[in-house]
């Protein structure tokens, strides 16, 4: 059987590059999607890596990238949706004191990259891993998805509220997608790293941050291995894992009150029945307009 193929967004630096190298050591093929090419110092082997310049905030860019990724090996097994940026706007800084002059439109790039970029990636990965050609090469449809959320998706982070909002949203997305993903043959999980030394953090912050509180890349790789079952365990689904210092901690969703808990399954089925029909109609309407132009 062919070696598995991973797609990694934000793959040219930081966590994405470390994961790429980690998977290569395990015999994987890796498609690197990033706005920047990986550094030559990474010395990535050309026979088992493919770099595709990708703007994850653009659906068209991601769609073209996934089409090329699928064409490369005719299979996709794992998507690490990792690309992310920090805040690009200060919500309380209105600049003007003139009531007749509203503040300029805020820069929402953080939401486009961190949240929409992940949503696009899930949709495209689900499409290409469900194609008949992909199923025949792998033996079954589906695959594994791991989203890079953040400890700021579990706890508040007042310094960068845009970032925290998108990462909280990713945790909710993963937990809400997991049941349907399992039905379709997928797993979807989230890793919530604490302070990992990468280029995302401003230099001043990294310099002053206590060394004892930094999370080593080895902890991140251990979290990936656990979620994918590469450590010998079974792969997980719907897990939200906090990677903090040397610990990998599984964070459960909050529980509802007693009455809700008693009827939870029935209520979930009701929501599913009502919305499934509506979502089918949405999908049919979208199909009538045609797919993305590559």
From TrEMBL:
Q: Which domain of life is it from?
A: Eukaryota
- Please name the InterPro entries in this protein's record: NAD(P)-bd_dom_sf, Sc_DH/Rdtase_CS, SDR_fam
Q: Which GO terms describe its molecular function?
A: oxidoreductase activity
**Protein keywords:** NADP, Oxidoreductase
Give the similarity note.
Belongs to the short-chain dehydrogenases/reductases (SDR) family.
- What name does this protein carry? 15-hydroxyprostaglandin dehydrogenase
Q: Which organism is it from?
A: Aplosporella prunicola CBS 121167
